[in-house]
Each structure stands twice: as structure tokens, then as C-alpha cells.
Amino acid sequence: MKSPFSRKWSVLPARAVGDRELKERELRVLGALCIFANRAGVCWPAMQTMCDITGYAERVTVHNAMKILKRRKYVRQLSPKDYQETASGWHSNRYQVLWDGDEPLPTYEEIHIATPLQVRDDDDDAPANVIGGMGDGHLVSRASDQPEAAAIAHAYIRAVQQATGQVRLYDNEIAHARRLAVAGYTAADVSAATLNVCDKAIERRAGVPSLYDVAQGML
Fold first, then answer.
1. Phi, psi of 75 (to 5 degrees)
2. Which domain holds residue 196?
3. Residue 122: its pLDDT value, please?
């Protein structure tokens, strides 16, 4: 089984270590969030990723831990309305890890241009079919995927990372990549279109576009 740990570091708020009100469950969840946090503490890992990293099979366990972390001011749940988002808001919850407990809300740039706090391996040393980045770590294409579709999915992911600093999940995008491949689009086509869509999304302060969003303008 592939390990859920794609990074070597998790920078935890030091005050959490001595907080006797926090149980192992809360510390595990806080540590999992911190794996993905940028310097402003901003992160939005998928709930399944949180379960995989903490080892909890039930999502409710993670949800309950998050409630306590928010109540004790280790985590703040961010609201799309504070960043002039579109009516649809964000596709996933976004959080801010609070190192001191009284940090101001992150800026728009800290929300959307999120560079991981921890050290990353050099991308040049990674295998060609592995993508690293913010959110859910290394993304690996399957041998069963058509080369054209896999190349399109990877091109989209690289373009999103270039434009926004974020990485989308390969598994969530491959179906749309197959549609684009069947329609005759190339990885270069998708890369250019993704950069364009991302630029427009940033201008109107919308969320990170999915490959579906990109495909809508191409098909």
C-alpha cells in the first residue's frame, strides 16, 4: 500500500505540546493539518487524506477533533466571504493553523499563493510520472491510464501549481483528461488553457479551477 506521507515535516504549534486539554486525537489531526500548512498556516487537505494520515477510519473522528482544535484556537476555519469569493465559494474547507492563537486573518495572497512551509524534494530528482505540491502531496499516474490522458492531467496539475502554487489531485482530474484526449487536445493545449483560466480566476478572486472548468472552455 502506498504511504499517505508525502512530506517529511509537520511544524506543530509549540504550545500544543504542553496543552493537557488536547488528547492524542487532536494532536494527530493538528499534526496532519500542519503537514500542508504554508507560512500563514493556510491549508486545505482533503478529508480522506486526513483520515489516511491520522489512521482514523471514520471521518467523524477527524471532524470532532477539528471542533476542539477550533474551540481552543489552534485552528480557524476560513470563510469564502472574507475573500470576496464567488457565490459558489470553495470546493473544500480551508483552514488556518494558529501558531500563537491570535493571528489575523490571512491575506488574499496568502490564501491563493500558498507555498508549503516544509522543505520539499527537488522536483528534478522526481520520477517523470510523479508530481509534488501543495494539498495532497505526490500524485502518481497509473500504468492503465492512456499516455495522452495522463500527460494532459499532469500538464494541468503543473500549470495550476505554476499559476497558483496549488496542486490538484490526479485521481480527480483524469476523467476530464480522458475527454480532452479523445477530443484531440494535447498537453500543451491544456497547459496554456489552464494558465489562462487560472489568471482569470485570480482576477475575480475565485477558487482554483478544476480540469472540468478548463475543459468547459475548450470542448
1. -140, 140
2. 123-216
3. 37
Q: Which whole-number Å values give the CA distances from 115 to 112, 120, 198, 210, in the listed order? A: 9, 10, 17, 19
Highest-scoring range by mean pLDDT, 11-15, 25-29, 40-44, 110-114 = 25-29
Asked if 136 and 210 sit in the same domain, the reply is yes
pTM of the predicted structure, to 2 decimals:
0.53
User: Is residue 3 included in any domain, yes or no?
Assistant: no
Whole-angstrom Cα distance, residue 81 to residue 92?
14
90 and 141 housed in the same domain:
no
Residue 118 predicted with pLDDT over 60: no
Q: Are 96 and 75 within 8 A, CB to CB? A: yes
How many domains are there within the chain? Answer: 2
**Selection from 136, 198, 197, 195 nearest residue 170 by Cα:** 136
CA distances in angstroms from 57 to 3, 16, 25, 39, 113, listed in the order given: 15, 24, 12, 29, 31
CA–CA dist 194, 217 (Å, integer): 10
Which has the closest alpha carbon to 160: 193, 111, 121? 193
Does residue 13 surpass a pLDDT of 50? yes
Q: Are residues 26 and 89 in the same domain?
A: yes
Strands (E), the chain: 42-43, 75-78, 94-97, 130-131, 139-140
pLDDT of residue 137: 37
pLDDT of residue 116: 52
Same domain for 129 and 108? no
Residue 202 to residue 204: CA distance in whole angstroms: 5
